[in-house]
Design goal:
heterodimer, A: alpha/beta, five-stranded parallel beta sheet, B: 19 helices, 19 strands
């Protein structure tokens, strides 16, 4: 039986990273966090992350571009786009970039947790 | 009226000498007669024989005769032939000079007698009376310019009349005492010889009433040199009266004018006279006999006689002295206040007052002052109007800036939402973590207190974001305070940060290490930088993402601060050069083109300038220059400038 999901958080807002880490830590293992997109694939692989929670607006690289690079190079790593832009186009662009899920930063009803639960279930 | 009597010379020089002198005078008179002898062509002209008392040089008689001739010509309407003979030297107290009479008769021996015989002065009147029977008794005789004292005796015949005067010398003394009440002695200049003795005798009698108050000093036995010496040493409470002169005690003959000039120069006391002809020759003034008026009256009578009017019907009352006349220059010289002058006095030769003297300069100065005042008033009015316009302009600018900020906020809505979502998301997920810990009765990965502190911090951050944008939406009037332009840059970047990210634009800072303090309105200056940033972001829309760069720089100069926004976009279109900051100028399909115009308005309201130029490589640079605000007591030191320029600073 696989172990707990290993989650890598990528966001340039430290307080938000801390909040997400506290929430996910109940059921999952937060293996690390990045405030930029550069070297994301290498970091995910090094940390043996199963899931990357990825912000779209990163200071150095477009999050969707980073998503595309990861999913193409390591399809086993699931990417969850985590963004403040919740328009339909954003969801479509995330899907096209290979993201497994799209979560609004102001999600309601525990969308983030349910998304991770689905990913975890799908892994089994 | 006339006081002089030339016959005194006979008395003082002896009868032989007097006869010889009479002959000489008669000869001279003859020459005059020859010069004036009427020709046949002039036979029809009126003929007047004038018997003069004195030769020229007596100011009174000279003026009288001159004025009379002019007035007579005017009244007759045609030239009158006047034959003048000086008879005075033989006419007063001495026996008549028969030779003169004969000479006069010889002149008219072969022609018709004159139409009128007129005597001038007292001596000539006496001469004519004495020889009336020999001197054309059938011809009308007019005694002119004669003091009535000379006419006492038999009344005039039907063929005689007079235009006489009453010289009132006591009245002149009254005038002196009125203007100089301290006067104790009066020096009387009356000429010498029989003339001087006559007037001394007459006046001593008339001056009796002054005996207790005044001492009279008489000049009739003094030479001119002595007289000048006496007047030069008179005590301060003295006055001088000049009646006439003619000759001094040594027999020297003098004209009035130089004698008066010498007296005026030497006298230590004011000099008074009773004839208007003397006025202006150093005489203080007094009640004056008008010689001009006397000449006119005499010409009236003479012209009527020539016109056939019998002399007996032309009796005129003797002329009295006129109103007192005073010479302003002499009043000043002797420090006589005008308040002492008799009522009705006329002051002549009044010097120009300061006003008269400097009237042009004063008027010019007043004109200049008025013009200057008008100019100042106009400038103040203009200044006031400009202030009002500036206030109105400031209000308009504020309104336009408000509208522009609202438009900016609208354009940045997604940025605001994105910015707010960060703290809200953090709060939300922290809250979920706490809830989960509570549900599972387990502890979270972090202490509860730490989570709550994060929630509080993020809530404050959200509030600040809201406040910042609410400030932008609020109506705003310019309020200048000392602000660091770098804080303006930071806030501007925060406002557009999300847009910069979405548009994949790199924003770089190249700020001065020296504080860039200006006196300005924080909100409006942020608006300026945001507008420039948005303008730069739009200019980068077509540029490849890898090249999209905006650099915000600052520089501190001696007197001002520069803030520049440099982009690597498409540069300024050539067609917009010169109108870049004009309202409604834009190349964008959306937008009113007010952003740069409002930026310029705000910068100008801060006393600054804004400019733009294309970069050498790519894009454009907009530069705002604002007056630097120096800290109290500080000055733009070389140290700060060196720091700003990145130069080594001098050691202290």
């Amino acid at each position: 039986m696989p172990g707990r999901l290993r989650v890598l958080i990528v966001d340039d807002h430290p307080s938000l990273v801390r909040a997400i880490s506290r929430l996910l830590a109940f059921d999952y293992e937060v293996v690390g966090s990045l405030s930029h997109g550069k070297g994301l694939l290498q970091a995910a692989q090094a940390l043996q992350a199963n899931v990357i929670l990825l912000d779209v607006n990163l200071p150095d690289i477009d999050g969707l571009t980073a998503c595309r690079q990861v999913t193409q190079a390591a399809p086993e790593i699931k990417v969850v786009i985590f963004t403040a832009a919740s328009d339909p186009d954003a969801r479509r662009r995330a899907s096209e970039a290979g993201a497994s899920a799209f979560v609004d930063k102001i999600e309601s009803g525990g969308e983030l947790l349910s998304t991770f639960k689905s990913l975890d279930a799908g892994r089994n | 009226m006339h006081a002089q009597h030339a016959s005194g010379r006979v008395d003082t020089c002896g009868a032989d000498r007097g006869l010889w002198r009479a002959f000489r005078i008669a000869l001279l008179g003859g020459l005059l007669v020859i010069a004036a002898t009427p020709s046949d062509a002039q036979a029809a002209l009126k003929q007047v024989l004038v018997l003069q008392s004195l030769h020229r040089g007596n100011l009174v008689l000279d003026q009288f005769v001159g004025d009379f001739r002019v007035q007579l010509d005017k009244r007759v309407g045609e030239p009158v032939n006047v034959v003048s003979i000086v008879v005075g030297p033989t006419g007063f107290v001495g026996p008549p000079n028969q030779a003169v009479v004969d000479y006069i008769r010889s002149i008219y021996a072969d022609r018709r007698p004159p139409d009128l015989v007129m005597t001038v002065g007292g001596p000539a009147a006496a001469f004519a009376r004495q020889h009336r029977r020999q001197l054309f008794p059938e011809v009308p005789l007019l005694f002119a310019s004669v003091d009535e004292r000379y006419l006492r005796g038999p009344p005039p015949t039907d063929n005689e009349t007079a235009v006489a005067v009453i010289n009132d010398f006591p009245r002149l003394i009254d005038d002196i005492l009125r203007v100089l009440p301290e006067t104790k002695q009066v020096f009387m200049i009356v000429g010498s010889g029989a003339l001087g003795q006559f007037w001394r005798r007459v006046l001593e009698d008339e001056f009796t009433r002054f005996r207790d108050r005044l001492t009279f000093i008489w000049s009739d036995d003094l030479s001119l040199t002595d007289i000048l010496g006496r007047v030069a040493s008179l005590p301060s409470n003295s006055a001088i009266v000049y009646l006439t002169f003619g000759a001094d005690a040594q027999g020297g003959a003098y004209a009035d004018e130089p004698v008066l000039a010498s007296l005026h120069a030497a006298a230590k006391a004011p000099m008074f006279g009773a004839f208007s002809s003397l006025f202006g020759h150093g005489i203080v003034g007094g009640s004056m006999m008008s010689i001009g008026g006397l000449a006119r009256n005499t010409a009236d009578v003479a012209s009527q006689i020539l016109d056939g009017t019998p002399p007996r019907s032309l009796r005129t009352p003797p002329q009295s002295p006129g109103e007192p006349i005073f010479d302003w220059r002499e009043l000043r010289r002797w420090d006589i206040p005008e308040s002492r002058l008799p009522p009705g006095s006329v002051v002549q030769f009044r010097g120009p007052s300061l006003w008269d003297e400097y009237k042009r300069a004063v008027l010019a100065a007043i004109g200049v002052l008025v013009l200057q005042s008008l100019l100042i008033a106009w400038l103040l009015y203009e200044r006031r109007a400009r202030q009002r316009a500036e206030i109105a302009s400031s209000r308009n600018l504020a309104l336009a800036a408000d509208a522009d900020r609202r438009e900016t906020i609208a354009a940045l809505t997604s940025s605001i939402a994105h910015e707010l979502k960060q703290p809200l998301s953090s709060i939300l997920h922290n809250a979920q973590a706490l809830q989960m810990a509570a549900e599972r009765s387990s502890s979270a990965s972090a202490p509860t207190g730490e989570i709550l502190a994060d929630i509080e911090a993020e809530a404050l951050l959200a509030a600040q974001i809201i406040d910042r944008h609410r400030t932008w939406l609020r109506t705003h009037q310019i309020q200048k305070t000392p602000i660091d332009i770098h804080s303006v840059v930071s806030e501007s970047l925060a406002l557009v940060a999300h847009d910069l990210g979405i548009r994949q634009i790199d924003a770089n800072l190249n700020l001065s290490s020296t504080p860039c303090t200006v006196n300005g309105d924080h909100v409006l200056l942020v608006q300026v930088v945001v507008n420039l940033l948005r303008n730069a972001m739009d200019a980068l829309a077509e540029a490849p993402p890898a090249t999209r760069q905006i650099t915000i720089g600052s520089k501190v100069n001696m007197a001002d601060v520069e803030v520049s926004v440099h982009d690597t976009g498409t540069g300024l279109p050539a067609e917009l050069v010169g109108t870049l900051f004009s309202p409604f100028v834009t190349t964008k399909p959306q937008g009113l083109g007010m952003g740069l115009a409002i930026a310029q308005g705000i910068v100008h309201a801060h006393g600054g300038t804004i400019s733009a130029h294309n970069n050498r490589d790519a894009g454009a640079t907009f530069t705002v220059v604002l007056p630097r605000r120096l800290a109290p007591g500080s000055d733009p030191s070389p140290v700060n400038d060196a720091l700003a320029a990145g130069l080594p600073t001098p050691s202290r």
